[in-house]
Specification:
five-stranded antiparallel β-sheet, 7 strands
Length: 132
């Protein structure tokens, strides 16, 4: 009987630890500074490969309130396109339609990048910096 109780207690403890460790935490709780990076990493990924960046529509930023007790200057629209040396379209980065959100969309030529068959992906334009 003691073995069954001990086994039950250990099972309960392990299961509890598993569920506690799997709870989704707010990834941004440990951050006190949120800034827009204007999609610089995504933009640099194309220009560092030698593609030409063309600003079709400039980035427009406005202060957006994301329930974080302060407004954040956020890119809400803008469009960049990327071309190879022969003038072929390679990819685009679209910052949106003016809606206050943290997302931009990368779209690319799947024939040029067959290892990424989806052809598009949303990404955050925010950079979270840890508290000091």
């Amino acid at each position: 009987m003691k073995k069954i109780n001990l086994l039950f207690a250990l099972s309960f403890l392990c299961t509890s630890l598993f569920f506690v460790s799997c709870e989704k935490e707010d990834d941004h709780d440990d951050h006190d500074h949120i800034v827009s990076n204007d999609g610089m990493q995504a933009r640099l990924a194309y220009t560092e490969e030698g593609y030409t960046e063309v600003e079709v529509n400039p980035i427009v930023k406005i202060n957006c309130d994301f329930d974080r007790a302060k407004e954040i200057l956020t890119p809400v629209s803008g469009l960049f396109e990327y071309y190879d040396a022969d003038g072929n379209w390679i990819a685009s980065i679209d910052f949106g339609d003016g809606t206050c959100d943290e997302w931009a969309t990368k779209t690319w030529d799947v024939e040029m990048f067959p290892e990424y068959p989806t052809g598009s992906e949303k990404f955050s334009v925010f950079e979270y910096r840890k508290k000091r």
